[in-house]
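Protein modeling request. Please complete all fields; requests missing the sequence field cannot be processed.
Requester role: graduate student
Desired output: 3D structure, token encoding
Chains: 1
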Amino acid sequence: MGLFDWKHWLVLLLVVAVLFGGKRLKSLGSDLGETIKGFRRSMSSDDEAQPQVATSARVQSDTAQTPLTQSGQAPLGH
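Delivered output (78 residues):
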């Protein structure tokens, strides 16, 4: 019988339910769920946006490496 026995958790849950009430606990749970969904959504959108940024950076570096003629334009082969 340790410090975190199942009976202790049951008493703790009952005390929390009495202090906050069922309605408030329900709203806290739904708010937490929405927060997690928003976090996952933003992480997945960051993963999708990141390759586009890398592609544009690659295009910029390719154009920076292209030698220019005296007129300031890239040769016709590029």
